[in-house]
Amino acid sequence: MPSVARTLNPALAALAKKRLLFFAGKGGVGKTTVAATVAFTLAQQGKKTLLIELDDSARAARFLGVAPTDQPTNDARPVSPSLFVLSTSGQIALEEYLQLIIPFKPLLRTIVESRAYQYFVAAAPGLKELLTIGKVWYEERKREAEQPLWDIIVIDLPATGHSLQYLRMPRAAHETFGGIISREAERIAAVLHDPEKTAVNLVTTPDELPVSETQDAYRQLTEELRLPMGALFINRMHLAPCPADVLRSTTLHGPLSPKERQLFELLLRCGHTEALETDIQTARLQPLQALSLPLIPIPFAVADTADKTIVEQLSLALTTVAAGPSPRTKKSARQRPHAPRASHAETSHAQPEE
Ligand SMILES: Nc1ncnc2c1ncn2[C@@H]1O[C@H](COP(=O)(O)OP(=O)(O)OP(=O)(O)O)[C@@H](O)[C@H]1O
Ligand SMILES: [Mg+2]
């Protein structure tokens, strides 16, 4: 199949100008899936992209088709020339980060292996989170021939409560500690709070509990943490191609065999179920319309698998086929401007490659 140029969803195109894209949300809503899909999509657009997952489960790596390793490392692994993935954990990030502060290796080893250090790390609230975010910041600062090594870094956070801890720690540490920790934490916080560089994105599903947790997370992120926000990704959306009232008035004329008629009735029933589900989901999302965030719908994938198939499929929903030379195609429905509010009529559908 020939590859076709695709343009980004405009809300995602705005995010693509940043350096750090965080993805937070309730447990199980699809944060890893969406973060991996966004990273994959941006890399396909030519951005040198690093996807960082903040635990060592290597789940995001699997979504990009990278096999897990026995020995977790803190190095980015290549998926393609423009896409890399890094699965880091508090412990590994901490040791690597300390290397920056204590370059003398024997001293570092002695400290890291000491009981006092192990004790301190286990007991110090938020230290691992601070240093894991420190790793993200370190990657952001990496340069090659004076150019940033990564055009963009996508960060898959853990479930909401814990993820806010990651985002809260740099400023909290700056205000709480003195000396080198405070200074380092201040530098990290400066990047996190810079709206030119950072955008915190929320992921939800159109279900009651995730919607209410999204409202809470939004309030904490904007009012308490005062972090720059990106977009709200609505995952597992049913995007019925045809509304119920149109289906109700649909009849088929002409001679049909009993088998064909049975198939037609069945398809009509499926269409009705899908239209009903879409309406229910749209109603559930109503409270989120009040948040000042662009909504980016991600459809329910046909392939419910935790591997690259789902990422490739969902990626199509984040792009549209680029405008061709013919003026007639320029104004096609696919190139219509992105609506700031997602609704049944406005949501974009995954389009097959042409
Ligand atoms: N749009 C989708 N359509 C169908 N299945 C999906 C979709 N998004 C995610 N899934 C499936 O849902 C499951 C959970 O997704 P994922 O691991 O991304 O959630 P998560 O929010 O990162 O979970 P956790 O809080 O445990 O980190 C996976 O098996 C994934 O394949
Ligand atoms: Mg996850």
Please write the string of helix (H) and strand (E) elements: EHEHEHEEHHHHEEEHHEHEHHEHEH
> What general outline do the C-alpha atoms trace?
elongated
Give the number of helices: 14
Strand residue percentage: 15-25%
Query: Termini distance?
Result: 8 Å
Decide which structural class fits the backbone. Answer: alpha/beta
Integer average pLDDT: 84
Indicate the radius of gyration in whole angstroms: 23 Å
Strand order of the largest sheet: 4-5-3-8-2-9-10-11
Task: Give the low-confidence spans.
Answer: 326-354
Helix content, binned percent: 40-55%
The count of strands amounts to 12
Ligand identities = adenosine-5'-triphosphate, magnesium ion
Summarize the structure.
This protein has helices at 10-15, 31-44, 59-63, 90-101, 105-113, 115-123, 127-141, 160-176, 179-192, 208-224, 244-248, 258-284, 308-315, 327-330; strands at 6-8, 20-25, 49-53, 77-80, 83-87, 143-144, 147-148, 152-156, 198-204, 229-237, 295-299, 319-321. With 354 residues, it is an alpha/beta fold.
Care to describe what's here?
By secondary structure, the protein is of the alpha/beta class. 46% of the residues lie in helices and 16% in strands. A hairpin with a 2-residue loop joins strand 4 and strand 5. Helix 4 (90-101) crosses helix 7, helix 7 crosses helix 9 (179-192) and helix 8 (160-176) crosses helix 9. It binds adenosine-5'-triphosphate (ATP) and magnesium ion.
